[in-house]
Each structure stands twice: as structure tokens, then as C-alpha cells.
Automatic annotation (TrEMBL):
Subunit structure, interactors included: Heterodimer of burs and pburs.
Origin species: Priapulus caudatus
Descriptive protein name: Bursicon
Keyword field: Disulfide bond, Hormone, Secreted, Signal
Disulfide cysteine pairs (residue numbers): 41-90
Taxonomic classification: Eukaryota, Metazoa, Ecdysozoa, Scalidophora, Priapulida
InterPro entries in the cross-refs: Cys_knot_C, Cystine-knot_cytokine, DAN_dom
Length: 114
């Protein structure tokens, strides 16, 4: 099964140096439309949720005896998930439908990138 989704939450402004993001870009749960696709079945658009947005990440020089770089990378990720079942209309099945399991995040937060 293939799931597609998309949403626009803002746009870039600037020339690379001093660029900044315009729009509501904090990590949060957002409404999206997913298109479910399964071989032999018609695609179906369903309302769902996704984690999208920006989290703080940085690299800084530690000013101790080692003079090492300290990295902190945070990503917008799901915390928990909910399960749902969707019926797709399929050709060739004796019943004519296929029940597909899908998942959506319950909530989102900034967590260490994996």
C-alpha cells in the first residue's frame, strides 16, 4: 500500500544568509489529506493527521579543554498513534472491497532525530 500526503505551511524569504521561514512552522499536529493506493484498487483520499513543523537544532563549539563541537538535532515526530480501517473499492475481488489498516499520529513533539 502506498500513502501520499502533502501540505504547505509557509515559505522561505531571504538569500541564504539571514534567511527566515514565514508561516506557522512550529512542530504540531496538522490536518492533511492522504491518498491510499493498493494494487488492483481505486485510490481513496482520506482526511488524516501528520506531524509537521520546525524544531530547534544547533551545532556549537564547546569552550572546554577539548574544543569539541556539540550537536543537538531535534525533529518533529509523532507521540503515539491511532489505528483506523478504510475500505477500498477493488476490481476482481469477490466482495469488491478490501479493508486496509492505516495509522495517524495522536500528537507531535520535538524529539532527538534518529
Amino acid at each position: 500500500m502506498l500513502v501520499e500526503s502533502g501540505a504547505t505551511v509557509g515559505s522561505w524569504r531571504g538569500n541564504g544568509v539571514g534567511s527566515h521561514w514565514l508561516g506557522n512552522d512550529l512542530c504540531r499536529l496538522r490536518r492533511v489529506i492522504h491518498v491510499l493506493r493498493h494494487a488492483g484498487c481505486l485510490p481513496k483520499s482520506i482526511p488524516s493527521f501528520a506531524c509537521q513543523g520546525r524544531c530547534s537544532s544547533h551545532v556549537q563549539l564547546r569552550l572546554d579543554a577539548d574544543l569539541r563541537l556539540e550537536r543537538s538535532c531535534m525533529c518533529c515526530q509523532e507521540v503515539g498513534e491511532r489505528e483506523a480501517h478504510v475500505r477500498l473499492k477493488c476490481a476482481g475481488d469477490t466482495v469488491g472491497y478490501r479493508r486496509v489498516k492505516t495509522y495517524a499520529p495522536l500528537e507531535c513533539m520535538c524529539r532527538p532525530c534518529a
